[in-house]
Amino acid sequence: MELTPELIERFMAVDPAQVGHYVSGGYMSPAIKPIKNTWKIIGPAYPVRVTAKDSTAIYYGLLHAPQGSVLVVDRAGDETFACVGEIVACVAKRRGVAGIVIDGPATDSRPILEMDYPVFCKGLSPLTTNLQGLSGEVNVTVQCGGAVVRPGDLIFGDADSVVVIPPDRALELLERAEKATENEKRTKQIIEETGFIPTNVTKLFETDIAAVIREYSK
């Protein structure tokens, strides 16, 4: 599925949480969050695997990542050494990469905030990687925040973390998220008017659902 400007605008008008209602997998750990909580990203994944302290694959990946893509970084379990800082973010922004998602820490948070470039990570660290050229992979299937990410999967994230959307489900999930967003607006209006949600919670809570299921399964 081609992520057109129109589809990008539609995705940015809903939240990943609305997509999260309808997926049973493909979501990253809630520990992965944007450095600034107002940042939001949508774009096809360009995955990179960075091992040990060698960040060469990051720069190599940025040379080849298409404009509008999201660099998704598998840190192979390392949560100490930051592979993305001010310079990486500057290169990514200049080359039109939509954002960076890291299964590990970032660094240089202040200048990244100043350049207003969306970096999602598990935290921050003053310890950094180096250019060694000894390891790393690009444009391969990776693991990030517990989610499998394949090249071209849609990466949709905001302050609540990130969901990974297979391209063949993108339009379906977008439409469901849009419908859920509209339903939520109506629900909030009812709450304003009545002080409660428009669902018979008492009946739902007091009904022995298990007994009903057993009765119908006889």
Outline the fold blueprint:
Layout: H1 5-12, H2 16-20, E1 33-34, E2 41-49, H3 56-64, E3 70-74, H4 86-94, E4 99-102, E5 105-106, H5 109-115, E6 119-121, E7 123-124, E8 137-138, E9 142-144, E10 147-149, E11 154-158, E12 161-165, H6 170-194, H7 201-206, H8 209-216
Parallel strand pairs: 2-3, 3-4, 4-6, 5-7
Antiparallel strand pairs: 1-6, 2-8, 2-11, 9-10, 11-12
Keywords:
single chain; 218 residues; alpha/beta; Glucose Oxidase, domain 1; 2 domains; eight-stranded mixed β-sheet; two-stranded parallel ribbon; 8 helices; 12 strands; 35% helix
Report on the architecture of this protein.
The model has no long low-confidence stretch (mean pLDDT 94). The termini are far apart. This protein has 2 domains: 5-167, Glucose Oxidase, domain 1, CATH 3.50.30; 174-216, no CATH class. The chain has helices at 5-12, 16-20, 56-64, 86-94, 109-115, 170-194, 201-206, 209-216; strands at 33-34, 41-49, 70-74, 99-102, 105-106, 119-121, 123-124, 137-138, 142-144, 147-149, 154-158, 161-165. Strands 1, 2, 3, 4, 6, 8, 11 and 12 form an 8-stranded mixed β-sheet that branches. A two-stranded parallel sheet has the order 5-7. A two-stranded antiparallel ribbon has the order 9-10. By secondary structure, it is of the alpha/beta class. The chain is built from 8 helices and 12 strands.
Helical content class: 25-40%
Ends distance: 45 Å
CATH topology of the largest domain: Glucose Oxidase, domain 1
Helix/strand class: alpha/beta
Radius of gyration from the alpha-carbon trace, in angstroms: 20 Å
Beta strands, count: 12
Overall morphology: elongated
What's the rounded overall pLDDT mean?
94
The percent range for strand residues is 15-25%
What is the number of helices? 8
Describe the biggest sheet? 8 strands, mixed
| Series of secondary-structure elements, N-terminal to C-terminal | HHEEHEHEEHEEEEEEEHHH
Instruction: Describe the oligomeric state of these chains in a short phrase.
Output: single chain
Provide the CATH superfamily of the largest domain. Answer: Ribonuclease E inhibitor RraA/RraA-like
CATH hierarchy: architecture of the largest domain = 3-Layer(bba) Sandwich
CATH class value of the largest domain: Alpha Beta
The unreliable regions are: none
